[in-house]
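Each field is listed here:
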Amino acid sequence: MFDLFFTSEGRMFGEAGYNGSIKIGNFSENFFSNNIFFNARQYQEQWLAAAERVLSNGKSYFLVNVYDPDMANFFTSWPCSVIDGTVYIQNQIIFADQYCLSDILSFQTNLGEIEFIDEDGEKFSTWQTDLHAMQQFRTKMRHLLA
């Protein structure tokens, strides 16, 4: 299973936005997406484009919190890579001083290859799903945005 969705409008740290959830297999985590730069539909359009890239290129990232690039320090994302038919997904901060937002939004940003162990031998939190789940998510998003 793979799903990414908003559950309600909300506020966090004085910012308006959307409460959301990501589900990957049995894993579930809530998140907050501000609406300073993206509205709900723009997030969802980015998620659809990301799912399509995963299925066509084997690599992409889902943005869940995007700030105005003139004021942002970072953006929150869920990068993923397909390896041997399995989709591996991690949570990653994209630092604004390392990448420009236009490259991030056009998928020109290369976040590097997925790594499972850091330089100290510690495992990165990584979740996995299958290509069928990603295809189902893409279909859901296409219907939602139609």
